[in-house]
Amino acid sequence: MAPATHKLKRILSAVLLIGSLGLALAPSARAQITINFVYDGTDTALNYTVAANSLASLTSSGTATPSAEHNVGNGGLVNVTGVNMDVYANPGFINTSWGSPIVAATFFSGDEIRFFQGSSGVRVPIGYDRVNSTLAGTMIWSSISLMDLGFTTNNTTSGSFAALGTTVNWSATNSAIPEPGTYAALFGLAALCFGAVRRRAKRA
User: Fold this and answer.
1) Which range, of 65-69, 129-133, 168-172, 196-200, averages the lowest pLDDT?
2) Contact between 125 and 112 (Cβ < 8 Å)
3) pLDDT-based confidence at residue 183 (cuts at 50, 70, 90)
4) How many Å apart are CA 92 and CA 164, to the nearest integer?
5) How far is CA 25 from CA 21, 32, 99, in A?
6) How far apart are CA 14 and CA 7, in angstroms?
7) Cα(111)–Cα(55) distance, rounded to whole angstroms?
8) What gap in Å lies between CA 112 and CA 80, rounded to an integer?
9) Is a pLDDT exceeding 50 seen at residue 160?
10) How many CB atoms lie within 10 A of CB 67?
11) Is the peptide bond before 91 cis (omega within 30 degrees of 0)?
12) Rounded Cα–Cα distance for residues 34 and 135 (Å)
């Protein structure tokens, strides 16, 4: 066996061993809220999911009166279409990652939910099982950028913060700008094509 091949096998074995130890020692996944914005250079889409048990620690504050809005406001995400909702608070949605402009969405589908900045907490569909049920939805803003929705940049960024007794993981992606890995893949493909052309030219 060539020395280089033997060294590569040792490195791969070490990587697999470290990965196995990491999985064994990693804590169990925590219930969480995930919010993903994707900007394609023209429109922005948002997908959100609330994992089961994410809101189990909240305390009821009664029932909210109907409203009709789909936007980003109050420091958080707002999706309400005029239905009564259960209100939970303590603690609230402490978002410091993007601003709070009132920008009405062009399209919405999925489960209704409303995040408030501060002690007002969250509104969810009446009868929602905070322990066993999940929530998911989609919003689309036509001709709206990430900056229009309160972000400081239209570039890809991400983060997390504590809110509603759980962790909120968020990301904002500019799909119109290829990631560095994409550039590397394109460069590699170009290099392969260039090499093939040169070999064919030499044979000719």
Assistant:
1) 196-200
2) yes
3) very low
4) 5
5) 6, 20, 37
6) 11
7) 15
8) 6
9) yes
10) 13
11) yes
12) 10
Say if residues 124 and 110 touch (Cβ distance below 8 Å): no
Rg (CA), the chain: 23
Burial (CB < 10 A; 0-12, 13-18, 19+), residue 57, is: middle
Mean pLDDT, the chain, rounded, equals 78
Q: What is the mean pLDDT of residues 124-143?
A: 94
**89, 88, 92, 90: which is closest to 126 by C-alpha?**
88
Q: What pLDDT is attached to residue 73?
A: 83
Single-letter amino acid code for the residue at 28: S
Backbone angles phi, psi at 191, to 5 degrees: -65, -40
Residues whose CB falls within 8 Å of the CB of residue 33, separated by 6 or more in sequence, listed in order: 48, 49, 50, 51, 54, 163, 164, 166, 167, 168, 169
Query: How does DSSP classify residue 119?
Result: G
100-118 tens-digit pLDDT: 889 999 999 999 998 877 6
Per the document, the length of the chain is 204
Cβ neighbour number for residue 122 with a 10 Å cutoff: 28
